[in-house]
Amino acid sequence: MSFPPFTTDEVRRMLLESEGATLPDGRKKGHAGERHVSISNADLDWRMRYSGGTVAGIAMYTAFLTFADQIRTAVEVLNSAQARPDLDRFLSDRTRKQCDLKDIVLTNSVPIRMATAAGSHVYPEASFATMILHSMAGRTRSIHVQTIFARIAVAGLD
Question: What total number of domains does the chain contain?
């Protein structure tokens, strides 16, 4: 079953409804805005150094420069041909509680801030995005957005 494309307004609502909220079991806090929008280089550096960094298996932290960039990227991810098979299965089978849309190739690159062990910088053209979704009644399209972030191509991660 194919579902109608996601609109900019729907995606904005999904992100806002999910931000700071958890699933009914108290887990999977929506943090797309808190951790991935309008964060300074210094704050990303701090997260990289003191929030686990590569020790936790995270090689980079990224943030969109603006909420509008995040929304535009989320719309592209949700409507992409690459994400569509997994997303259609998730939307049609509500016993599926989570949908990980990993490393979706962006046709419209987006500027991001990125922190690695080497420091933080603004990169003008991130070309991949990941979105983690959960099923939750009462939300726009019954979707809780745990996170969305973008990244650049990095040797060893692709």
Answer: 1
DSSP 56: G
- C-alpha radius of gyration, the chain, whole number: 15
In a domain, 89, yes or no: yes
Of 95, 86, 29, 38, the residue nearest 62 (C-alpha): 38
Q: State the pTM of this model.
A: 0.90
Range of the domain at 47: 8-151
Residue pointed to by tokens 């960094």: 53
Residue 134 lies in a domain: yes
In this structure, is residue 157 part of a structural domain? no
Which residues are bridge partners to 115 per DSSP? 61, 120
Residue 69 belongs to a domain: yes
Tokens 């933080």 belong to 120
Q: What is the pLDDT along the chain (158 residues), one digit of tens a residue?
A: 578 999 999 999 999 999 999 988 888 888 988 889 988 888 888 888 776 555 456 778 899 999 999 999 999 999 999 999 999 999 998 788 999 999 999 999 999 999 887 888 899 999 999 999 999 999 999 999 999 999 987 644 44
The CA angle 115-17-11, to the nearest 5 degrees, is 75
